[in-house]
Design a protein that fits this description.
mainly alpha; 445 residues; single chain; 74% helix; 0% strand; Growth Hormone, Chain: A
């Protein structure tokens, strides 16, 4: 490690005072993100919400979360994750308090938006700390551990939250969440050591990294649509519409639905660690992480097609794949870490996360709009409504996957039909046009 990573700190202190506090913050973010699947029946009953309103209430979190990624990324790079994350979580605690005391749908929306703002930096703060402290070649594995521990929030949002709801109700549950959020905020602010400012941050890059330079980078443009379409859709489905599908389409009762959601959340947590370990292993074999990301995206499409076409499989199998796709941030953030300087890691991650959450908002709300075009019976929507909505998701994801694979398709065409002399392919035919496998080739930073 270089001096900017403060390698003098022992590993045990890095784990206890850096890694785990930010993992706790990301745990809260995941819990708040996915808790709507558990509380939406109670909210729909208490506030008489239809499918579109339910989708909007859940997705407003993604909208605010996404819109704040760029400014929070800049703040994280300039001020460090300790101060930024410690302050933001105070807003999340305030939103949890307002949500638990809301008396109308607009109040729920405002409270949900405050929560989204308050936890918007949780993942980026953790990733920034990893990029700062860990060797570059171990970033994917460390990301996997961070996301695995954080995604236990999704596990908590299933059976444990359902158990609490039966005893204390959703309003008291948010009082508990308020206390927990304040506690994690204080932990981060008081325990995490202040980073030493790297004097080279302002001069290490050959040119300033702006929002335009990120979004115009050809490598980013190739990877970002696939990452956003896969991860954003997975988040939108698991945090809300999986529960509705299991109830209306699969006909599961409350306990069976909670059990399957619990297993999906466990799959998400383990999937994050699995993908991080796989990326770490493949990297040692000189196979880039982008290849694994494409494989996860393709597998996700197959799983959704199995749901839409009603193929006779245990529903747990395709929905577990949905969970796995939601953990693919382990891969995409490791990819972005290779594309841009470490000193600007948070704003580069923020640029990508903006697309993740923007897509999640669009899909989660959009599914509600599509499903709402069919009349409900006793609060349940017909199978065809979900098939139409999910089918639209599949089409968009397939388009993103094809866009990502264009360089490979071109290379295959050259190998099959021949290559004009003097082409970039070279005599070995191993060059792949575009930025898919050659992360270090584009952009001079």
């Amino acid at each position: 490690m270089d001096a900017s990573r403060e390698s003098s700190l022992p590993k045990w202190r890095l784990i206890l005072s850096v890694f785990l506090p930010f993992a706790a913050g990301y745990y809260l973010a995941y819990l708040f993100r996915t808790i709507n699947a558990a509380i939406s029946p109670a909210l729909a009953s208490d506030f008489e919400l239809d499918a579109a309103q339910t989708g909007l209430l859940a997705s407003i979190y993604f909208l605010v979360f996404g819109l704040t990624q760029i400014p929070i990324g800049v703040l994280l790079d300039r001020l460090g994750p300790r101060r930024v994350q410690g302050v933001l979580l105070v807003f999340a605690a305030g939103g949890a308090t307002l949500f638990g005391n809301a008396s109308s749908f607009p109040e729920l929306l405002v409270a949900r938006a405050m929560i989204g703002l308050g936890v918007a930096g949780s993942l980026m703060a953790g990733l920034k700390s990893i990029v700062t402290w860990f060797p570059r070649e171990r970033v994917a594995l460390a990301n996997g551990w961070m996301i695995m521990l954080g995604s236990l929030g999704a596990v908590t949002a299933t059976a444990p939250v359902d158990w609490l709801l039966n005893y204390v109700g959703w309003r008291s549950l948010f009082e508990i969440l308020t206390i927990g959020t304040f506690a994690v905020s204080g932990l981060i602010y008081l325990v995490v050591p202040e980073r030493v400012v790297d004097s080279q941050i302002g001069t290490s890059a050959q040119k300033p990294l702006t929002l335009w330079s990120i979004y115009s980078d050809p490598r980013f443009l190739r990877v970002a649509p696939l990452s956003a379409a896969s991860i954003g859709s997975a988040w939108a489905l698991q945090s809300l519409w999986a529960s509705a599908w299991l109830t209306d389409v699969e006909g599961l009762d409350g306990q069976s639905r909670v059990t399957q959601m619990f297993l999906m959340a466990v799959g998400l947590s383990l999937g994050a660690l699995l993908l991080g370990a796989m990326a770490d292993r493949l990297r040692k074999l000189n196979i880039r992480t982008e290849v694994l990301l494409a494989g996860v995206g393709a597998l996700f499409i197959v799983a959704e097609l199995a749901l839409v076409l009603r193929i006779h499989l245990p529903s747990f199998l395709p929905w577990s794949t949905v969970s796995l796709a939601g953990a693919a941030t382990v891969l995409s953030f490791a990819v972005v870490a290779d594309y841009f300087p470490r000193e600007f890691a948070a704003r580069a991650n923020g640029a990508l996360n903006l697309l993740h959450f923007g897509w999640a908002f669009t899909i989660q709300y959009g599914i509600g709009l599509v499903v709402g075009q069919w009349p409900s019976q006793d609060g349940h929507y017909p199978v065809v409504a979900y098939q139409a909505a999910f089918g639209l998701c599949v089409a968009l994801q397939a388009a993103a996957l094809v866009w990502f694979a264009v360089p490979w398709i071109r290379t295959l065409g050259r190998n099959v039909f021949g290559e004009p002399s003097g082409s970039l392919a070279g005599s070995g035919g191993s060059y792949i046009d575009g930025p898919i496998l050659e992360a270090g080739a584009g952009g001079d930073w």
